[in-house]
């Protein structure tokens, strides 16, 4: 069955399609001589697109005669810190695939990357296949720097084997927190952990949606002025909701000491029912259903079919089908490469190749893209979990950016690192939120 991909702003339908590609700008492909291009991305580890990235840049190398020195790594706080340090020490790559929110502020403020408009002054067709309205402007100066590839969504993965054993039905788009708690009680009584989450390691997704459940898509990205205003109290209520779920025993017994990898393994091993995570986790679940995580041909399709993905339970003005998502990353060309006479054309050529109409669908998968002309795709080309993800996203009523992407650095410590203290009652949610907001407004 073929479906036309609709705009992210309209429906957020997510897709995957594999194809060969070429440059969108003749000028940018005419590099003066073979060069070595240093490129850093987050297409590594369990990221679904790790192999797609290798395939694409290898094809570009063959087409242009240039060479990519790949220093990609899995995206986490350590990776973000590394990128910041690289720019500070003059060790930045020529091309960087990175976040377009607050994480990029430091190197944009330092003038270390080139804006799309400045590149277009010499290469008019650069990113010409993109819907400019979907390219995120910098929080620093409002200019656009990163050419987007794929977006993301955050939703709730489900181990249907656990739900079936507990007599719980698959949640739908009208799923509420009250229904969720009732289901968690059944799952707990059946001897399983209802929620796979490591609150002492990565509480990010629960932090986001717990707050969102006391707001709406219109207000979620408004950072509170203080703990006493409406949004500040929404944040406090969200933290207290997580505390309630902890007190009810719906997280793993070791949730405060376990790593995210350990609780994810509980989920894929059939010991936990629900997992809130991002679209990138599809790859991890698929890998867990392969006898060889590196070999797609070893996929156990029957095992994979026991997993599904649905909406995070809603409350108040937020419907379950109102999800967190967007296009938060893209390719930057650094000033270092731009000012190198040999590398300038190669860097432009590389980004145009990696963001062309025929390459992006392979990366977008069940995520989003900013292409003006989205291609048609055939669902029969995808594995069952990817198809389920596409169908789930077809019913999404809205995609709202992640508040935590705006609430960066030390301001998150009191509620991120401090989540164990909040849920155990050692620190009140109000005090933790107040501390974080004070740091945010004074940093």
Topology readout:
Elements: E1 2-4, H1 26-29, E2 36-40, H2 50-64, E3 67-70, H3 77-88, E4 95-99, H4 105-109, H5 116-120, E5 147-148, E6 152-159, H6 160-166, H7 177-189, E7 193-195, H8 204-212, H9 230-247, H10 260-268, E8 272-278, H11 281-288, H12 301-304, E9 307-310, E10 322-326, E11 329-333, H13 335-338, H14 343-354, H15 360-364, E12 376-378, H16 384-394, E13 398-400, H17 419-423, H18 429-442
Parallel strand pairs: 2-3, 2-4, 7-8, 10-13
Antiparallel strand pairs: 1-12, 4-11, 5-11, 6-8, 6-9, 6-10
Helix pairs in contact: 6-7, 8-9, 9-18
Task: Summarize this structure as a short list of keywords or feature phrases.
alpha/beta, D-Maltodextrin-Binding Protein, domain 2, 5-stranded mixed beta sheet, 36% helix
